[in-house]
Amino acid sequence: MKRWIGRTLLGIGLLHTVFAIVVFSPIWAALVREGLLNTVNQQPLREAAYWFLFFGFVVLLLGALIDWCEAQGSRLPVFLGWGLLAMTIVGVVVMPVSGMWLALIPAIGLIRQQAAPALKELA
User: Fold this and answer.
1) What InterPro entries does the entry give (predicted)?
2) Does 63 share its domain with 4?
3) With 38 labelled, which of 19, 47, 106, 120 sits at a CA distance of 20 to 30 A?
């Protein structure tokens, strides 16, 4: 099994995180100046910056886990690929002008990887 799905998600997570830091840098600077503690509440731009960065970290963790599983030769659960595909489709429908399209690649890769053993058994 080639280790590309987790690494693709790691790349997407890294892009997401760097983008969040660069694009929202004025907001991050203001949060640091204000001491970080309770500086996000009830301010939509700050909330968007926080969740954008936080989601990047979540994608990094997911990518690291999948890469580790790929390195171990572990089969990933079927729901993971379908769940990632469903989340990606919802994201693309809600925000078509975004990087969500990138997640189609690892989602489809996961589904194909999970289907491969079942197809071999049928042959």
Assistant:
1) DUF6463
2) yes
3) 19
